[in-house]
Amino acid sequence: MRHLRSGRKIVGSILIICLAIASIIAMNPQANANAAGYGIISTIAGSGSYSYSGDGGDASLAKFSLPGSIAVDSGKNIYIGDTGNYRVRKIDASTNIVTTVAGTGESGYSGDGGLATAAALGRIDGIAIDAAGNLYIADGKNFRIRKVDAVSKIITTVAGTGGIRIFRRWRSGHGGQIELSLGDRRRRQRESLLCRLQ
Fold first, then answer.
1. Which domains does the chain have, with CATH numbers?
2. Whole-prediction pTM value?
3. Which Pfam family is one of those matched by this entry (predicted)?
């Protein structure tokens, strides 16, 4: 189990990142459970090898490199932090087509104020989606939280100056909250309001 990372629940299934085969798998605990109590497991993204390919095609044929985080929006679209490819990729819920929504494939820091697909990202430590569908990226190498606007697709930095400590925890909370822990400090992003919790 050390090669599996827990993910997000979606439509009765649990999404799991399988690092050993660079794939996203879905497990439905209730559907057709066998005598041992295991549910159906199916691969929904990734073709079993570390690489980059497949944008514009079916997610099951796409290749990922070190997929490290998953987020799901209200429309059940799946977002994957494709860490080794320095991209965030999206699987459309209705078509199963995969596309890049942030990152150029090159490690770096650039692009704020422009389209997210033209921006360079560092290490993707986590991703989250708020209630409005905005994408947040914990850009750990650059010590920043970056936001991709759901409508304009413009990327901006919403927290961090490039010199704060590494992110310890990162999660989506209830009501579209985004919560992260920076050392012994915690900040919470609720919609467009950024504040510090004492």
1. 4-197 (2.120.10.30)
2. 0.72
3. TEN_NHL
